[in-house]
Each structure stands twice: as C-alpha cells, then as structure tokens.
C-alpha cells in the first residue's frame, strides 16, 4: 500500500466527504450532539461526525411520517413512480460521489462500491414498476353483492440498515416502501452515514413531499425502542445480525407489528466429487475476498469432498496469498481493509481459536501493518466442526475448510447451524444438484458460481436468518395489506 494511495484517499476525504445530518419533515438538521465519529478504515482518520437524534427529533420524525403517509398514500401510483424515477436518475448521475463515499466510510474497493451503487438502482426500477402491477381483484358473488379485494400500503415503516452494504440495503427498503405508498423513517448505520444522506438528498431534490422519507442517527437502542413502540409505525424492516434482529422482532411482537428481517448467515460451499478442485479453489479466493468478506452472503464454510480436498485447499490458499490488499482507492488493490477495529479483532480471534483446536493456517491469518484495518485473506484447513470459524459468521476475509467423504455428510454439516441465508455448491452431477437444491436449508442457493440475487429475484433466509423476502415478484408484499370490501348494491 503506497503513500500515493493514502494521499489519493486523503484528497477525496477533503474534497468529497458529504456533511452528515438528520433529515426530518423535509429539513436537514445538523446542530446536535455528536453520536460517533466516522473513520476511514484504510487510514483510521476521522471523516466526520454523526449528529445524535434527540427524543424530540424522534417525535418529530414520527409525526412527519404519519402526515407524510397520508399524503403519499393518496398520491396516484403513476405520480409516485415519477418521483422515484427522478430520484433514481439523480443518483445515477451521482454514482461516482456515492461510490467514493462508500469507499471512504466502508473501505471496500472503489470498483466494488461503484458496482454496489449501480446495482442498487435496479431495486428502485424494479419496485417502482411492480407498484404499477399491484392490482386488487373482484371475487364473483351472488346477485347484488360485490366482493372487492384491495391492496393498500401498510403504513409508516421503520427501516434499519447496516454498514456493510450501505446503499444496497437502504435502496431495497426505501424503494419498496415508497413504491408501495408507505412513508419511511430510515435509521442507517452510524459507521456509514453519508451514503444514506446522499440517497435521501436525491429524493429531496426529486421533489418527494416532506415527511415521506426521514433519516435519523444516534443511539441505536433508543431509536429502535422509540420507533417500534410508537403506534405510528406499522412495519419494522431490518438487515443485520441475528441477535439484533431477534431483539427488534421481540419489540415488534410486543406491539403486534409485522417484521421483515434479513439476518446473518454463515454460507456453506459444497465442493462435490468430480469437479476441478484447482479451478474451484481459485474461484473461491475471489468469492471470499469480495468486499473483504463483509457481506451476509459471503461464502464461509467450505465443505469439500475428500477426492478434491487437497487440490482445492492448495489452489484456494495460493490464490488467497496472491490477492493484493490495499486502500480501496488504489488502482492495484484487489481487496480493501475490514471496516473497523472490531472486525479486525474478530478475525484475529477466529484464527487463534482455530489454531488452538488443531486447524492449519494454509494462507494469511494476520493483520497487515499497524495503520488501517487490513487483514490477510485467510484460509484455514482441517478445521474442527466445533471451531468458532465453523460456528460463528466471520464477516471478514476468512474461510474454514473441512473434508467430507460423501454428499450426505456435506449436507448434514451445512445444515447443522441455526442459520440459513445463502449457500453455494459446485458439482457436475445433475442428480447431486437436484438433491442439494431440495435438501440444503437456505434461502438462496447458487450452483457453480458465487453470484447472488438481483432485484428480480427474492432474497432472504430460513431458520434464524430471517423472515420474509426482498426483491422478486413478491417484493412489495410485506409493505402492503389486503382489505376485503363486501358491498351490497341495494337501496337502504
């Protein structure tokens, strides 16, 4: 990592890091106590400060969302779509700024940040188009009786989004809520606040009515408990860890509110008998280091048939050692830092535990340098099933490899955890692919590649990995309610 790369990042910090504020009832609020400081993961330098919403701010946001919903709900769908399309067009014009901001806050490669921002626009396009197809229907009835089934927006939504995909997750939730006719209070991650501000700014510039979209930061526990308990909020949607998701679900259940939860995973990768272990191993290095492994669908547990295990691990480790780690703005870097000192410590802890239990470090395993949160792409081999690396989602550039002798054993290991979000399999057997598709407990399965769903297909998990789906034909379901109207056509 060169001095020039650091200087390039510093120049971007000074020139382009947006000011962070709360956005309530159509106005930006900046003059508040600081909640946290935002740091650049590559340099540990402070980027800016995040204002903390007061109890009065949250009350104002709730009141604004209640009024905004009434106005937005009664706005014709075609007009709502025009506003969403205008905001999306503005974000597309600002993709470079959005991507730069993501890399500054999150640390991921600029190319990956740009790809995330560009792909996120698909959610606005898809959800807006789906809103024009959310028809009700009429049920045949007896004479002088009309039975209407209406599809209506559920109401104001509390949306909580994470730091690892700051534009993607916010785009999924905001686009669905606004397309359905709901208002939103977005509580974005304090680690990546400016990215959320840029999304909100685009909607302000597009003419979204005041109160329809609000943005708050501050004390996460205070914000979540206040918003979820309020009778204004009708739906809670969250992307993040299993533990926090369960806590928010409990709060919502106490208030009898539905939830849409996209929670953590620990994605298994089944590498089956008969595949090219070397080729799959090299693919795995790219899949594992994408966004420094800090995505919920990141491949993490590599369950490999014994006939290809040695070739796979050797190729995987070799390719991992070749990955160039550096500042996300470096033109030569292939992986950026992890996002925080906490993530760096977590990686070190997983390696230490695995080594203590007898695992072999085939590649990486250590911090790089002493400035910035850089960690080597790490491949652990011969990992015991009960090691932390096999049971705790790493959320970093760390892979655990285990050897199995047959497909049934591989599926059993993959299904042994309480989570089930994404999963991957590599096989040349249609019979095995069919069995894996049927028996693997996951919400998303990719066979012979490491891709994940776009806006046109559902994304979500099973078991502890969540409730509901985002994307695809059912994308607006959670944000709408069904109303039955039975109308007698007689004079009274």
Low-confidence stretches: 1-10
Beta-strand content estimate: 15-25%
CATH architecture tag of the largest domain: 3-Layer(aba) Sandwich
> Which structural class is indicated by helix and strand composition?
alpha/beta
| CATH-assigned homologous superfamily of the largest domain | Aldehyde Dehydrogenase, Chain A, domain 1
The end-to-end span amounts to 81 Å
As an assembly, this protein is: single chain
Q: Tell me, what is the CATH class of the largest domain?
A: Alpha Beta
State Rg.
Answer: 24 Å
The helicity comes to 40-55%
Q: What is the count of helical runs?
A: 15
Shape: globular
If you had to describe this structure to a student in words, what would you say it looks like?
The chain has 492 residues and is an alpha/beta fold. It has two domains: 3-263 and 465-483, Aldehyde Dehydrogenase, Chain A, domain 1 (3-Layer(aba) Sandwich); 267-455, Aldehyde Dehydrogenase, Chain A, domain 2, CATH 3.40.309. The protein is built from 15 helices and 22 strands. Strands 14-15-16-13-12-18-19 form a seven-stranded mixed β-sheet, sandwiched between helices. The protein has a six-stranded mixed β-sheet with strand order 9-8-7-10-11-21, with helices on both faces. The longest helix is centred in the first third of the chain and has 22 residues, at 110-131. 54% of the residues are buried. Residues 1-10 have low confidence and may be disordered. Its EC number is 1.2.1.26. Keywords: Oxidoreductase. This is Alpha-ketoglutaric semialdehyde dehydrogenase 1. One of its GO terms (molecular function) is 2,5-dioxovalerate dehydrogenase (NADP+) activity.
């Amino acid at each position: 990592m060169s001095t020039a790369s650091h200087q390039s990042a510093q120049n971007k910090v000074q020139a382009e890091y947006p000011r962070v504020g709360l956005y309530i009832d159509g106005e930006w609020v900046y003059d508040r106590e600081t909640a946290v400081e935002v740091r650049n993961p590559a340099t540990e330098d402070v980027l800016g400060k995040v204002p903390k919403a007061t109890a009065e701010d949250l009350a104002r946001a709730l009141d604004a969302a209640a009024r905004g919903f009434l106005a937005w709900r009664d706005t014709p769908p075609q007009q709502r779509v025009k506003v969403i399309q205008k905001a999306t067009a503005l974000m597309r014009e600002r993709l470079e700024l959005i991507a730069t901001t993501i890399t500054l806050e999150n640390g991921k490669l600029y190319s990956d940040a740009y790809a995330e921002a560009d792909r996120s626009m698909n959610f606005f396009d898809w959800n807006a188009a789906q809103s024009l197809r959310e028809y009700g229907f009429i049920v045949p009835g007896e004479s002088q009786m009309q039975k209407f089934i209406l599809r209506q927006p559920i109401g104001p939504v509390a949306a909580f989004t994470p730091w690892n995909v700051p534009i993607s997750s916010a785009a999924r939730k905001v686009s669905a809520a606004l397309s359905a006719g709901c208002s939103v209070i977005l509580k974005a991650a304090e680690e990546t606040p400016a990215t959320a501000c840029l999304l909100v700014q685009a909607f302000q510039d597009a003419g979204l009515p005041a109160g329809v979209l609000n943005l708050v930061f501050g004390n996460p526990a205070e914000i979540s408990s206040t918003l979820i308990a309020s009778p204004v909020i009708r739906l809670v949607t969250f992307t993040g860890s299993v533990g926090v998701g369960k806590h928010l679900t409990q709060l919502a259940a106490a208030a009898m509110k539905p939830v849409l939860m996209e929670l953590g995973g620990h994605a298994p990768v089944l590498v089956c008998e008969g595949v090219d272990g070397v080729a799959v191993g090299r693919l795995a290095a790219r899949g594992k280091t994408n966004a420094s492994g800090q995505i919920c669908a990141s491949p993490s547990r590599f369950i490999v048939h014994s006939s290809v295990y040695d070739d796979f691990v050797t190729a995987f480790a070799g390719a991992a050692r070749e990955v160039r780690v550096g500042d996300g703005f470096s033109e030569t870097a292939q992986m950026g830092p992890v996002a925080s000192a906490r993530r760096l410590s977590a990686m070190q802890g997983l390696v230490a535990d695995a080594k203590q239990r007898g695992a072999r470090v085939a590649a990486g395993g250590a911090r790089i340098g002493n400035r910035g949160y850089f960690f080597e792409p790490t491949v652990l081999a011969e990992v015991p099933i009960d090691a932390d690396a096999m049971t705790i989602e790493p959320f970093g550039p760390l892979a655990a490899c285990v050897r199995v002798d047959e497909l049934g054993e591989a599926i059993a290991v993959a299904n042994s955890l309480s989570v089930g979000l994404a999963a991957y399999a590599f096989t040349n057997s249609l019979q095995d692919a069919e069995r894996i598709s049927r028996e693997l407990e996951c919400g998303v399965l990719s066979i012979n590649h490491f891709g994940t769903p776009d806006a046109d297909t559902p994304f979500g998990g099973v078991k502890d990995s969540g409730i509901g789906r985002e994307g695809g034909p059912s994308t607006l379901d959670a944000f709408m309610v069904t109303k039955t109207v039975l109308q007698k056509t007689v004079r009274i």
